Amino acid sequence: MNLKSLFHWLIRKVFDYNLFMLEEDEYHDDDEVQDPAIVLKHQKYKTWLHNKTLSCPCSSTSISYKNFVSNTIKVHPVCSSRFVSQEWIHALYLSNASRYGVSDFRTTASSQFEILSSFCSLAQDIVNHTENDVSSNEFVTIYLLPDTQVEHE
Q1: What pTM does this model have?
Q2: DSSP string over 106-143
Q3: Residues 6+ apart with CB under 8 A from 105
Q4: I want to staple 140 with a disulfide (CB 3.0 to 4.6 A). Which of 47, 62, 121, 128 is the partner?
């Protein structure tokens, strides 16, 4: 047997090795129920080198994002301040604002705070819509994925 055929034989043995089959000395003659956490720990240990090629042995291949994704969303404090309240905007409204000069803040104050309030409402609507989308979507895969790939997706 030359070196090349020995190498191919070794590669076939490595790829054909069944990771989930117990070795001869690992069999238990008793029918005692084993702790599932320990069994899972042993399976993870045995498969850590081959996690890119294994199929998921689970009965479910999908999980809702809301089960493992959490978001902490902070909007600018001005969006929860009194400066975007209708009382503030109405208090700044001047029916005779045209009497003041163009450079006078009082002529546009009500409109500027109304726009600010609209931007805050739009931002909150987008946040709510995005949170609903994320929580209603499911992560689906039939493969065992590394943590980094799950975080990326």
Answers
A1: 0.52
A2: GGTHHHHHHHHHHHHHHHHHHHHHHHHHHHH-EEE-SB
A3: none
A4: 62
